[in-house]
Amino acid sequence: MKLIFERSVKGRGCSVLPECEVPVWDFGEYGRKKELRLPEVSENDISRHYTELAKRTHGVNDGFYPLGSCTMKYNPKINERTAANDGFTGVHPLQPEHTVQGCLEVLKTAEQVFCEITGMDRMTFQPAAGAHGEFTGLLLIKAYHDSRNDGKRTKIIVPDSAHGTNPASAVMAGYTVVNIPSDPDGCVDLQKLREAVGEDTAGLMLTNPNTVGLFDKNILEITRIVHDAGGLVYYDGANLNAIMGVTRPGDMGFDVIHLNLHKTFSTPHGGGGPGSGPVGCKDFLARFLPSVQVEGDGPYTFVRQPDSIGMVKAFYGNFLVVVKALTYALMLGKDGLWEASRNAVLNANYLMEKLADKYKMPYRRTCMHEFVMSLEQEHEQIDVSAMDIAKALLDYGIHPPTMYFPLIVAEALMVEPTETESKENLDEIIRAFEEIYEQARTNPEAVKTAPHVTPVGRLDEVQAARKPHLKYSYDE
User: Which residues form the Glycine cleavage system P-protein N-terminal domain (predicted)?
Assistant: First the structure.
């Protein structure tokens, strides 16, 4: 495929712009010294270029996208229609409050809905993504301890199965990370947790269901241990898709939570677009929330929290993403959210059970929304790795699962089918996994050199990571 620069022909173009209605400013010595290098192409060239690019992309609208721990679920089109409403797209964040009452009502309603789902008391929509929400939540924890002159609390406990952003966020917030191992069942080792907590414990970061797709049956004991030590408990909302409408983190003892609206609540995920990682908290932390909160029952007004940690993003967060997520939650309603979670769990267990005869499942008990398989045995016996299986799936039009994560499982593939896949689709996926497995046993070289029918074959992973070609080089 040619790059847009390679389609360029000098003198060709398609822009028909009206004459400038204002004086043209001459920047003099500060102006550009040579002509800007832009591709010169016709409208036909542009149309064909982007159409060809679109054909080479793969997303939730193209096929199965089982990216474990990322919840790549279908984005209902009504979300986009709602967010495109002129009353939402035509506002400015500096408008007077009385002119944007509808937008303030959206933020207030969204706060009420998501607090009800999570068991929190207040919520901010400022954070722009999940990791940004983690950082914000940790700043709330830090502000709480500082307000009590409890400066000795310098450590955040993080399980070994946590998302990599958890320890990174803790370090950014100024904490030392204490890593604790999982028990043989893939959950938090209670004895190791008891040994780790103390007067220097600021908090624990935890995902439940955890990263191997299991609900920790000891969750009430876990949160009690941390609270008894004087710490707070942070809920990573990455896996909320398994439990929304069923149980609430706030009822499990969590004090702070972030949500991934671009995961659980069906707004677009990936591609560099805007995410949203709102942070909820219990009442005793609300005074530290960033920016301003919407108060009132109409008319609505902005109120700054008395001991706010300050702004973590400009204005009020990615507002249109909140509109999309709220549309999804209200369209499904209480019963619909409950059903979505149950179907996500059902789909994951169906897929796991059907594949368990061939693929090793390290934790062979009822999973939640995702499960982890291990190719360690195949790697040792026939030199076929998790990466090879993932690459082979591309030839079936399937996006690979999450690879080599969590780190506590060797040669891991983590699969999350989500609730929006039908049984017929899942049966096709099962057949693909089974065929690849049989081919790995009978003709391993074919799997190790996959993919074979994609526009680009297997890349040199090391060179692609270390020496990527990120810009076009002109021939002088």
Answer: 36-290
